[in-house]
Amino acid sequence: xxxxxxxxxxFVIAAAVFxxxxxxxxxxxxxxxxxxxxxxxxxxAGDVTARALADRLGQRxxxxxxxxxxxxxxxxxxxxxxxxxxxxxxxxxxTSLSPLVITPHVSKTIPYNALADLTPVARVGWTGMILVxxxxxxxxxxxxxxxxxxxxxxxVSYASLGAGTISMLTMEVFKEAAKLDILHVPYKGSAxxxxxxxxxxxxxxxxxxxxxxxxxxxxxxxxxxxSASTRSALAxxxxxxxxxxxxxxxxxxxxxxxxxxxxxxxxxxIVDRLNSEINALLGDAEFKTRVNGQNLDVYAPxxxxxxxxxxxxxxxxxxxxVKTLKLEAQ
Length: 330
What we know:
By secondary structure, this protein is of the alpha/beta class. Helices cover 45% and strands 19% of the residues. It folds into two domains: 32-126 and 255-324, Bordetella uptake gene, domain 1 (D-Maltodextrin-Binding Protein, domain 2, 3-Layer(aba) Sandwich); 128-249, Periplasmic binding protein-like II (D-Maltodextrin-Binding Protein, domain 2, 3-Layer(aba) Sandwich). It contains twelve helices and ten strands. Helix 4 packs parallel to helix 12 (304-324). The chain is globular, with a radius of gyration of 23 Å. Mean pLDDT is 89; it is low at 9-26.
């Protein structure tokens, strides 16, 4: 039965009203404060990133971003809380790489699958891992370190933030490449490790710029190299491992990156909005100044899909390293 003109108009009007209501609902996000979980205590690179984002991203979204530090189990507690949260855009994760692409390869008890249970949103910043030593250490270059260790096999130690951490794995990659025998001394946190390093109780450590570079600038530690593939714009005086002149170290490139993620199933419109806003912030002078002030370099803008591909590559890379070092599933 054909519709009359008034009936057709009624259907058109009803459809327009429905579409408008649906659009308004989609555009309503965010309608309340957003919780940003950081799976580490204050001072971690992820925490630094989250607090910088909370201020500037909150302004852009028109809602408060509340940072919630959920430390424990090498980041697994906080990440799991986000993986199990409602995918509605009101619970987000800001973290450094370890609980996403390293810890899952070294622990049998991780309750989440980072690649399946989380939605990548955007990379934010990175910190080079610096090879640091006490200010009175006899080595002044990577070549000096290699020579010193080879002359004292099994008698030189290094500090790390614990088994399976980026600090430990960077040194193990360095040791494997240079064929060195260095003893591992694990710590439960950067503060005590740095204290003992400054005091000379342990002579070497790979640590992120966010926690160690201030001590380098003050003269309490010396920086011998940075693990990234390129020098940091924030510390251009520190050479890369590949610049050491030692052929076996040319391929090493390690970055301690930070990023924003959401629970799997978060609406694409919300993910795209967050990605767009963060990409705008990456070129924002005020945001860059704040993040750089914490010794964190800022990434160039990228899409959520590009970050997802990067994260998958990083997971495969660190999984292979863990397997080579026989550190799997403790």
